[in-house]
């Protein structure tokens, strides 16, 4: 929408991970080095953690682009809200192995046969598991067991685990000791700093042909960093809104006022209506907690009705003994 207005060849701040926009911050370069080291070793587990939107998936897409010319057969799993048995079916499906209507033993046999065929063809199998923090300890153990498929001198499957910071707590559990022994490298991907945030924005803009229209001043960059905390996905979301507003208002320069206006709009969109509160289901996971908005006036009205009903019941209970005594006296007469 705003691309043609500012002379851009494509949308620079899309939320979808795209390796074309890979930005090599200090943290991302180091994480990429760990992944490349893992590829060179051809065995074990590589663990990359980071906050939501830190760029883990983009990092992996960039790695996939780099290894296209190598004899590496890579498969990725992104839906990890599954049990231990289902994780094996997902692995099979990711590699194109038949998995329906089969026992666990038969499924493992098919996976091993497939991996050995890859090895005979001179190919290496790489499994990438995204959102690893959702895996149960038993599911992680099933993945570890797959690393037991080996030839005399090499592993038939290598696994990269990408997850949010809480996955590190899972790894430190008593039942994860065998997995830790297979981890050859681990890295936590942190947010961008202030300077990297500005460079990140300019990098994405230059990738789509930005010619300094609109002009973005230093104050705007500082405010974007403060609001987003240096998280790439948050930066993309804010900048996309900023450029959209610039197009609608016909701005060719972004400063403190423009960024402040967009931030205010975003905050207002997530504010609750007056007289409402958020209730979170305590039994839901952090990622899937549902938010229910309840009107307080209705709650108060229901409360009054409940108290009235309780009062009536109490009054009836008090009347019952007296009624029984009166009935007994009538019978005696």
Structure description:
The structure is a single chain. The chain is built from twelve helices and nine strands. By secondary structure, it is of the alpha/beta class. The strands form three sheets. It has a five-stranded parallel β-sheet, sandwiched between helices. The longest helix has 37 residues. The chain is elongated. About 10% of the residues have low confidence.
The computed structural class is: alpha/beta
The largest sheet has its strands arranged as 2-3-4-1-5
Which H/E pattern describes the elements?
Answer: HEHEHHEHEHHEHEHHEHEEH
Number of helices: 12
Layout of SSEs?
Layout: H1 26-41, E1 45-50, H2 56-66, E2 72-77, H3 84-94, H4 104-120, E3 124-129, H5 137-146, E4 157-163, H6 166-171, H7 177-182, E5 183-189, H8 194-207, E6 215-216, H9 218-228, H10 232-249, E7 253-254, H11 256-269, E8 276-280, E9 291-295, H12 296-332
Parallel strand pairs: 1-4, 1-5, 2-3, 3-4, 6-7
Antiparallel strand pairs: 8-9
Helix pairs in contact: 3-4, 3-5, 9-11, 10-11
Summarize this structure briefly.
With 333 residues, this protein is an alpha/beta fold.
